[in-house]
Every structure is written in C-alpha cells, then in structure tokens.
Amino acid sequence: MVKDGIFLGKRYEVLSKIGAGGMADVYKGRDTKLNRYVAIKVLKKEFREDEDFVRKFRSEAQSAAGLMNPNIVNVYDVGEDRGLYYMVMELVEGITLKEYIERKGRLSHKEVISIAIQMCTGIGAAHAAGIIHRDIKPQNVIISKDGKVKVTDFGIAKSVTSNTISSNAMGSVHYTSPEQARGGFSDAKSDIYSIGITLFEMVTGEVPFDGDSTVSVAIKHLQEEITPPSELVPDIPYSLEQIILKCTQKNAERRYKSTDDLIRDLKRSLVDPDGDFVVIPPLRNADTVIITDEELDDIRDTYGDEDEDEYGDEYDEDEYGDEDEDEYGEDEYDVDEYGEDDEDEYGKGRKGGEDVNPRMNKVMKILMIVVAVIIIFIIIFTIGRAAGIFQTWGSGTTAEESESRVKVPNVVGMTEEEAKEALNEKGLGYKATYAESEKYEKGIVCE
C-alpha cells in the first residue's frame, strides 16, 4: 500500500487515495515542481511482478501520453520508483457518467447529445492519433464540476495496427462490440458501437443487454438486436433513436464510419429532432449469426473470470460524491454551443408543429395508397356495371337481360285480334289454346 505523504520520482507527493480498480489504485497527489494537483495511478502490488500487467500498464501511459484534447484526461508523466509503477494524470474533480446516470435515472435528450458530442470529440482525437480506446463505458467518462466531459482510462488501448485484443484486455461486457466479443479485429467502429450502448443507457437509464453471466451478455451482443429506445422512452426524438440504432448495428460496416460523421448527426438532431436524415446502409447479408463451439469456448475463456470493471470507477464517490446534486442538474450543459451555429447548415428547427414525425408520414403514405386503390376499384366497378360487365346488384341476370324484360299486357276480355295486336306492340308472341267457358263468349280471351 502506498502511504500518504511519500514522494514518487522525487517530484509527486501522494496526498490521499481517491479510487481503486481491478489493476491499479488512484491517488490524489501534488506536482511539487509545477505546484498543481494531479491524479496518480499506481499499479497494485499483486501485479507488479507480472510482466504482462506491467507492460499493459506502460502501454496505457504510452497510448494516452500523446493525446492532448480538452475532452480527454491528459497523461503528464509515467515512471517507476522503488518498485512502484505509476502514471501521473490530470486531476478532474467530478463524478463518472455512470454515477450521474444512477443519480438522475434518465437524462434529457439535449443533455444526452451534449455529453455524446464531447465524448466523441475526445475519442475522435484518439482515433486520429491511431489509438482505439476499446473500453468505452460510462465508468470511463468523467463529468467535471463545470460540466466538461472527459474520457479517461485508455487501459486497454492499442495501436490500430494490432490485429486482436487479448482476453485480459477486453472491456466491460455490457458495452463491448460484437467483434470484440468474438475476440476478433476491432477498430474505430468498435468504439462507436460502445458509444451507442452508452447513448442507450443515458436515454433509458439501463443497458440493452443483461444476463446472469458475462458469457450470456457477450452472446447477446452477437445475436440479439437492441430494443428500440422508443419502446422504453416513447418521447425520444426520432433522429436520436436512429442515431443509437445506427451506432449499435451488428455489422460494423453499417455503423458510422467515423466519430466526425456521428457528431454531424448529433448536432443536426438538436435543430431537427424528428428529422429523417440518419441513413443506415442496407444489410447485404441477412444470414443468422452462428456461433461455433470453438468461438463459444473462446468467449467463455475471455469473460469467464473477468472483473467487469477492470479499473472500476476511476474516482471514488467519497471524494466527489457529496456535492449537491443540483450542481450536476439538467442546466449544467449549455447545448446552445452546438445548436445555434448549425441552424444555417441544416435549416430551421421544428417550429409550431410544421414538421410531421417521419413515422407518422409513413403511416399516412400507406393509408393514402389503400384509399387510392379503393377509389380506383369503385370507379372500375361503376363503369363496368354501366357497360354490363358486372352483374346487377341483387339479381342473377346481366344488365342486358334486365333491359330486355317488358311488362306483359293484360289481354283477358279482349278478342283474339285485339289481344294479338296488344302483344305485338310489346314485341311479344303468343300461342292460343281454346277452351269452353261459361263466363266469356266465343272468341274472347279468358283467364
């Protein structure tokens, strides 16, 4: 255990422990040379003799040291002193996004977008430097007291040129991409998948996949589609839901190609929340994903003994968790920073109900098609009936037959000649039969 008050590298004074994870402890310290407070991550004792863990710890520092971005927790220094391997980082006084979600349950849509844009800005800077985070999750996102969002813990980050990631380097299973779950190649699109899962949690207050074991959750990432967020939060803007669904596509080629593309749609969602502008590429291969026994064994080996939070929450809530919740309230984030500047690029936002939800548009289109078909059928039927094509209502005869029917005149009491003339006028013929009658005289038509 590192005691308070000791110095590392003859420069960094350890003040107090503020957090602990699966591999390292985090201390609040002071840089005596620059007279500033810092966070010092020290590798745990049980891992100091393990060359793989030491190499991994150094890899984190080397990966993150070259990243300088306002949305990344900056790494200042790395070193070893008396067998203690340590990394000196920017001290961010705040809480993790995970804690923030737990406090509020669900975040407002504008708040979700503001946090996501800042996350993507930091992660995009890492991607531009050839670094994939591979462990994006709310526990690795810090919200400072002034509302600044910073991504931390590049603990399993590797160069893009690396083909695969080892089982010890796997990120938390609830946020891992399908390709990471398989133990295959991962790239920037893998981080985008994890961003999508984080977005889902911010919107709904829960993760899309859960289970009794890490293996079962990993398999769900491979085989199951996420529940559309609108089923859990009906008032979610249509565009934001589509952004989440695009980020979390099983096929990496159907996700956003870069964080820049994702940021562009997030900004547009602020000014056109119900716009139908998110394009998800069509699925080229709809075959069911089959997991072989060998792959299943690999997944079990990867997740069977895994500590879900490899580093845990970077900062201890005891240090920063007693702040008034209002300090991190909904008004903490200024979304105008992203909203006003983009109206000219994307047009005016929705006002006065002028725009119709695209989902309603689709329903209306279907109804219009059905009505049009019915109208066309009625017109055809009416014309056909008039032309004698269809049978008349309520009879088994055609229109032509109906028109040929005439009323037979009553010829009883007429002479045979008179009856013949009356029938001929109607175009009718007759056949005479003769019989004796006490009522009528001879030659008179009788009943």
Automatic annotation (TrEMBL):
Domain PASTA: 402-447
Catalytic activity as recorded in UniProt: L-threonyl-[protein] + ATP = O-phospho-L-threonyl-[protein] + ADP + H(+); L-seryl-[protein] + ATP = O-phospho-L-seryl-[protein] + ADP + H(+)
SMART domains attached to this UniProt entry: S_TKc (SM00220)
Gene3D superfamilies assigned: 3.30.10.20, Phosphorylase Kinase, domain 1 (3.30.200.20), Transferase(Phosphotransferase) domain 1 (1.10.510.10)
Single GO term (MF): protein serine/threonine kinase activity
InterPro entries assigned to the protein according to its UniProt record, in alphabetical order: Kinase-like_dom_sf (IPR011009), PASTA_dom (IPR005543), Prot_kinase_dom (IPR000719), Protein_kinase_ATP_BS (IPR017441), Ser/Thr_kinase_AS (IPR008271)
Keyword Cell cycle: no
Origin: domain of life: Bacteria
Top EC group: transferase
UniProt keyword list: ATP-binding, Kinase, Membrane, Nucleotide-binding, Serine/threonine-protein kinase, Transferase, Transmembrane, Transmembrane helix
Annotated stretches, region: Disordered: 296-354
Amino acids binding ATP: K41
Spans through the membrane: 366-384
Acidic residues bias spans: 296-345
Pfam family, one: PASTA
Protein name: non-specific serine/threonine protein kinase
Annotated organism of origin: Candidatus Dorea gallistercoris
